[in-house]
Specification:
The protein is built from 3 helices and no strands. By secondary structure, the protein is mainly alpha-helical. It has one domain.
Length: about 100
């Protein structure tokens, strides 16, 4: 952790942080992430449906609803949209990282 803190405080570390924040805020990159997230969620849904069919569940149950016998079909809420951390949240004072 000390090495990471030292890197974050160095000029090179600050450059890397700024570059990462710029990439994270780029609308094109955000669109790529959302597209990938959608594909993964779709694949998870298909896998859950196949698992439910394999377990013998009825097809008339609404998709995405949980059953008392199969908690694996409980839908997962989407991850909250958050901004990238600011420089202040990367480290603590001169004595070490902040306590969480």
């Amino acid at each position: 952790m000390n090495k990471l803190t030292q890197l974050a405080k160095s000029d090179k570390g600050k450059e890397l942080i700024d570059k990462a924040q710029a990439l994270a805020n780029d609308p094109k990159n955000r669109e790529k992430i959302e597209t990938a997230r959608g594909k993964v969620e779709e694949q998870i849904g298909v896998a859950k449906q196949k698992l439910a069919e394999k377990r013998g569940e009825k097809d008339d149950a609404p998709q995405g609803t949980a059953t008392a016998t199969d908690p694996a079909t409980t839908p997962t809420p989407p991850a909250p949209q958050t901004a990238p951390p600011t420089e202040a949240s990367y480290g603590g004072d001169e004595d070490g990282p902040k306590a969480a």
